[in-house]
Amino acid sequence: MYLSTFCWFFLLVSFHLIACTNSAERRPVIGILAQAASLQDGDSYIFSAYVKFIEQAGALVVPLRIKESKGYYKTLFEKLNGFAYGKGDFFPILGICQGFEEFTIQRTKTFQLGRCDGLDYSSPLVFTNDARRSRMFRGLSDDLFEAMKNWNVTYNNHQYCMRTEVFNKTKQLSDFYRVLSRNVAKDGVEFISTIEAYDYPFYGTQWHPEKNIYLWSDAHVNHSAIAVKVSQYIANFFVNEARKSKHSFEVNDLANSVIFNYQPKFMGAPSFHDVYFFNNDSMVT
Ligand SMILES: *[C@@H]1O[C@H](CO)[C@@H](O)[C@H](O)[C@H]1NC(C)=O
Ligand SMILES: *[C@@H]1O[C@H](CO)[C@@H](O)[C@H](O)[C@H]1NC(C)=O
Ligand SMILES: *[C@@H]1O[C@H](CO)[C@@H](O)[C@H](O)[C@H]1NC(C)=O
Ligand SMILES: *[C@@H]1O[C@H](CO)[C@@H](O)[C@H](O)[C@H]1NC(C)=O
């Protein structure tokens, strides 16, 4: 089976990306959850694009492995950060594509997503009236806001959509998340494309901010200078949120946990994927 970049593929198994952050102002550390894989190279993986996306904004990355014990997650979680405002703690989470979809599943505890054709295309964002003053987008320069509104600079690659009408009538979602943009998939389905929680630092994009810089396959990603700035804006915004977090790693513990302990594998043409694999069973003797 070949490594698929379609985010529907691992939907029920894992997140596409949930970047959990945390840390001291001086050394932000972001956890990135691996995706399940059924590959000879390992049971899970992280595209290095996500790692570099976070690192470019001035943070360290710690991989969060899948299928580990509760203790593993609890321990890491505490170092990375607490959970929420509610407890006087600050724990930003960025959900990209499947991460976005997972946000909706976590809220409703059911699967409210519907099929749609959101595969491999770039589009502008159709901003809502709330977008310009949202936490996520109020820092955009006018130029960048206009670019996101008018140009094909946000990359979509999904086969599930959170339909606007479903979102609207699902109180667990509409009471919790402010909608910042809605888009129309290639088959005409209108879906929610960007959200932020009203009272928590949770941010979700059905689109892929990291790919404008880091995906070099034949996919319809926009690599223009302004598209790259969109990507950098989101990374900077999110890592800035992480800088507000009070938790921190002990330095040697961080050295043992940081992604630098792993080497990504280059998958060659035509995908140009550069991938971290974990738990490579075929290497166990
Ligand atoms: C996994 O192990 C096999 C067998 O040693 C090796 O051929 C393969 O390159 C390894 N994969 C990675 C990502 O290291
Ligand atoms: C944006 O993409 C659509 C197809 O998804 C295409 O019809 C349109 O021409 C593109 N716009 C620009 C400015 O490239
Ligand atoms: C990429 O974005 C630029 C604006 O920076 C736009 O001119 C161009 O049409 C977009 N390219 C595609 C393929 O959509
Ligand atoms: C969903 O709710 C928003 C905000 O209340 C509204 O503007 C929009 O028209 C609604 N759309 C649908 C399809 O229900």
UniProtKB/TrEMBL annotation:
In this chain the Glutamine amidotransferase domain maps to 91-213
> Which keywords belong to this entry?
Hydrolase, Signal
Q: Which GO terms describe its biological process?
A: tetrahydrofolylpolyglutamate metabolic process
Q: Which PROSITE patterns match?
A: GATASE_TYPE_1, PEPTIDASE_C26_GGH
Under InterPro entries, the record lists: Class_I_gatase-like, GATASE, Pept_C26_g-glut_hydrolase
- State the Gene Ontology terms under molecular function: gamma-glutamyl-peptidase activity
- Which Pfam families does its entry note? GATase
* Active site as annotated: C97 (nucleophile), H208, H208 (proton donor)
The protein's matches in PANTHER family, at most eight in alphabetical order, are given as: FOLATE GAMMA-GLUTAMYL HYDROLASE, PROTEASE FAMILY C26 GAMMA-GLUTAMYL HYDROLASE
Q: What is this protein called?
A: folate gamma-glutamyl hydrolase
Which organism encodes this protein?
Paralvinella palmiformis
